[in-house]
Amino acid sequence: MRATASAPGKVILFGEHFVVKDQPAIAVAVSLRAYVTATLLKEKTIRVYSRNLALSREYTLPPADDKNPLYPVAHAAFTVLNKLGAYHGISIEIDSEIPPSAGMGSSAAVSVATIAATAKAMGEDLRLEEISRMAYEAERIVHGRPSGIDNTIATYGGAIAYRKSEGFLRLNVDFKDVSLILADTGKPRSTGLLVKRVLDLYDAFPSVLEPIYYAAGRLAVEAAKMMERGDWEAVGALMNVNHGLLSAIGVSTIELEQIVYAAREAGALGAKLTGAGGGGYAVILCKRDHEGKIIEELRKVSPRLLKLNVENTGVSTSL
To answer: Where does the record place the GHMP kinase C-terminal domain (predicted)?
Structure first.
């Protein structure tokens, strides 16, 4: 039996890094998706092929961690096989629109889609909370100490406020008057290493970092209110403050600063790094009737721009 599933990527608008220490964060699912096709095999193996990475790997059951980029996918598929009591293997084929190492939740989207497709191929539909929980375990292999926001947004879609100790709250937000633009620094980075570096800084200077984390949490709460009211001027101003807090904990770069300031000077409502920082992408919020001028200026400082829509559909499956 064969099944296909897809899950969206995400953009964090508020709270990255701070969410790891149980501060709230806000993320939106975006219109780039990871697609996974799962096909049952008679052999007791897991075969994984990624079109994007041009990589393939075959694992015996249970799969052993060989530090290959495809191992977390095999682990996610095996978790489903094991849960559902399967005595066969599975082939996983990945085709993702989400750029890797960009802070857009590519690995979580692949994990979520893999889990959903594997279960569907076995004739089962897992509950969304099960899919998210199992994807979180796969994310731990990739990122070490993930926040949990990536697997949550990939599973449920839409706009959410998330806190580790409380779970997520779906936000009722209308994005019709504004655009989200992602600007690439052209510089990849490791989320796991950056998360560890920030946590090490927190552990070294807790009395200094705690007020910054608290401020980021209050900022996210206020931003959620402003988003639901449609006060985009306020949302943009809070994005700018959030970027300053992220710079304070050491995750911005020269390339990110150039993009952020170019966007603001061109008339953006707000601009900040998104994801782990250290490279990757900046997210720019602008009025739809101003996006042309802003894109023109951003092309001078960014090798790649993505204009995105918010995706209300989370993980979906089909046979």
So the answer is: 227-301
